[in-house]
Amino acid sequence: MKVLLTGAAGFVGSHVGDELDVSGHQVVRLDALLPQVHPVDTAVPPDLVVGEVQNAGLLSSLLDGVDAVCHQAAMVGHGLDIGDAPAYASNNDLATAVLLAAMHRAGVGRLVLASSMVVYGEGRYRCPTHDVVRPGARRDGDLAKGRFEPPCPVCGTALEPLLVPEDAPLDPRSVYAATKLAQEHLAAAWARQTGGTVWALRYHNVYGPRMPRNTPYAGVASLFRSALARGEPPRVLEDGRQRRDFVHVHDVARANALALRADLPAGTFEPVNVCSGQPRTVGELAQALATVCAGPPPIVVGGSRPADVRHVVADPAKASRVLGFQAAVPFEAGIAQLCAPTEFSAPTAPSVPAVSTVPSQAITSQ
Prior knowledge:
4-stranded mixed β-sheet, single chain, globular, 17 strands, alpha/beta
């Protein structure tokens, strides 16, 4: 299969490309090398085309003979502030709209979309009295007093977190989350209108080799590892008991390869959690990293960020059923890999092979 892979030089995208190569696919790699997440010492594939997904003319040339698109390109993370909104909307939503239109013109009807658990907002919860409910908003006064669990919207009781299935209500809490949900809506509309098919892979907390570091757009595992590399303790917000699902990037890449091979009925949009199925707390992550990296123990500092949610833990059942996907990398092994010398130490010299480029005015970010 000939596959256009967007975001091919990124953290997840580079591993997806490796997996597709091993699986025997012909991969066309595209990335805009956004400076915020691609420092000058980033190693990039020698066959990379540097350009933005918003460039319809470039897409037209790259989609010639392509059988499927694996769309990984996006700005990720909380960002700095609401001032990032135009960049998120441009690189995530406008880019996806341009890509979908180009796919339609080229007659390409198969899409694997990198989505995210952030579309859920808070996870799924049960009240002892009112059963499964949508959680009430966490109030600043409660957070300041260390009451971090979201309350029942009916009686105010602290809720019990449950596994989140794909049909849970969607409630994005940040600009990034809103743009990821918009990507899903655009892709679903494209599928219905064109007869195309979409696997929307809702990644949970991805970690592993090549994670971006020392950037406000990085994930929590990368932020903790960067602190340890500086000899500082990881700083854990709230009480450290926030529950997440940490899934290794090699498993995420394999899920993409499985989705590319899996058929769907024409006009179908299918969301799937990509997760480990093994809940961990943020505090456990910080402690595990500190232990294997032989660094100072984590410090619980309290507080929270405005867009943070308390618990998001995925139900892995659907991925197993429809894709035959189950995570294979154990948490302990994945964390140990993060602190290997080749990962834990900063690069000492640039390593950037020659790449194909498009005019500089078309190069922005992914």
